[in-house]
Amino acid sequence: MEITGHSKIMFVLADPVDHVRASAVLNAYFSGIGEDVATSPLAVLPQDLGTVVNAIRLMGNVVGFGVTIPHKVAIMQLLDDVTDRAGMIGAVNFVRRCQDGRLVGDNLDAPGFLAGLSAHGFSAAGKRVLQLGAGGAGRATALAVAQAGAAELRISNRDQARGHALAVAVQALFPATQVSAGPAAAEAFDLIVNTTPLGMKAADAMPVDISNITSSTVVYDIIVNPPVTRLMDAARARGTVTIGGKAMLDAQMALVATFIKR
Ligand SMILES: NC(=O)c1ccc[n+]([C@@H]2O[C@H](COP(=O)([O-])OP(=O)(O)OC[C@H]3O[C@@H](n4cnc5c(N)ncnc54)[C@H](OP(=O)(O)O)[C@@H]3O)[C@@H](O)[C@H]2O)c1
Q: Residue 19's pLDDT is what?
C-alpha cells in the first residue's frame, strides 16, 4: 500500500492497541476495492481521548476513525452528533469526520451483525433467538435482533442482573418481541448467538450446551478469531449452519466505506 498526500486517512483508537486487527482488515478491504484509504491504530489513553479527538477535527485528510475498547461509550459526549442507532445502543464504534471537521458517531455492530446473517440467507424475523452475553457487542446484537422482528429473544449472561437490564431495555424499545433473561436450553431456539469471548481461547468452556440442538438451528458466533470456534465446530457436528464473526466484520467494512462517503 502506498500512502501519499492524496490518501484518505483513518485511525482505530484503542487502549491497549496490541489487540487491534480492524486497521489491517480495513486496509485489506479498501485496497481490495481500489480505494486510496489507509488506516492506522492509535494508542490513546482514556484521559487523552478528548485531546486526540479534538486534534483529529483539525486533520483535513482524515475521513473517520474506528473506536474500540475502552472508548466506545466515552467517545459519545466528545462528538458533534451520533446516529439514532448509536444513541439507542449507547455506544459508538465508528466516527465520520465531515469536511468541516464535525464528527458524527455511528454503531455499525448492529447492522453488521444483521448483514452477516442475511449474507448466509437468514433473517431473525419471527425467530426464537438465544443470545449469550450482554456486553457491548451483545447490546448491539440484542437490539438488532429485536429490531429485525424476532418473535422471542432470551438473553443468558454470566452477570444475570446485567442480562436482565439489557432484556428490560430491549423490551421497552421493541414490545413486539418477547424478551427475557436467564439460563435457557439451547434446543428451544432457532438461532443461537454467542456474544461472549468464550471460544477465543482453545481452553475456554463452551458458552452454552448445544448437545440437544437439531440441524434446523443456526449458530452465529461473533468471535472473529479463531474463525471456527469450538461452539461452531460442535454445531457443525450436529449438521447445523454456522456463521462466524468474520461475516459481521466484513459487513462492517462495507458499511464503513458507505458511512465515510456520506
Ligand atoms: N465480529 C465482530 O464484528 C465483532 C464485533 C464486536 C465484538 N466482537 C466480539 O464479541 C466478543 C464480545 O465483545 P464485547 O465488546 O461485547 O465484550 P464485553 O463488552 O466485555 O462483553 C463480554 C460479554 O461476555 C460475557 N463474558 C465474558 N467472559 C465470560 C466468561 N468467562 N464466561 C461467561 N461470560 C463471559 C460478559 O459477561 P458479564 O456481563 O458477566 O461480564 C459480557 O456479557 C469478543 O469476542 C469480540 O471480539 C465481534
A: 82
